[in-house]
Amino acid sequence: MTAPITTEPDTIQVSAAHAEVWALVKRTQAGEIEAFGSIYSRYFDVVFGVVYSHVSSLHLAEELTSEALLRALEHIDGYTYQGRDFGAWVVTIARNLVRDYYKSKYYCTTVLVEDLRDCADESRRADPVAAAINALNNVWLRDALAELTKEQRQCIVLRFLKEYSVAETGKEMGGLNESAIKSLQYRAIRSLRRYLPPGVIAW
Fold it and tell me: What are the pLDDT tens digits along the chain (203 aa)?
């Protein structure tokens, strides 16, 4: 996603409130990367707060915040002052990153969860499965599932939501043997627990 770029005005009149940051921007544009370090420190917490309010995962919020600031650095030569604080530009970049993240990972997981809920309702599965599906509504678990590989996510869905046996899961996943499924399941659960608070999942 290309960072939004402002249009160069004929005359730049920087307000006193923005003068310090604009000076850092101009120094960065002139090649003083150290100046951007000051910008990074100045805006990290602000951008992080915006991102974290949307993703609910501390680790992911930190990654997206850093990425937003790095993209700002990549495109800073095209940035010009138009009366707003520089942080507003970086926040726009961050929001675009959050949107792209949801498109690429979160929504594909959410759609899968909704399909499984419908399947569970139709088949009237037992309470443990219903509980697992309900747990998927928790934003922490959805975000954690989105961090898994496609194969790990499929293994979790088949084993714990559709209640497939190890052998059935292997067959569904292209003929993997039981040892491979058990190993994949172990890695998937271990990965999930890295992204979850204690007690969110009992698998």
Answer: 545 444 343 345 667 778 889 999 999 999 988 899 999 999 999 999 999 888 767 888 888 999 999 999 999 999 988 888 899 999 999 999 988 887 765 445 544 544 444 444 444 444 444 444 454 445 566 777 778 888 888 898 888 877 889 999 999 999 999 999 999 998 888 888 787 666 555 45
CATH architecture of 16-101: Orthogonal Bundle (1.10)
Query: From CA 202, how far away is CA 199, in angstroms rounded?
Result: 7
C-beta separation of 113 from 137 below 8 A: yes
Residue pair 93/4 in contact (Cβ under 8 Å)? The answer is yes
Fold of the domain spanning 104-194: Arc Repressor Mutant, subunit A (1.10.10)
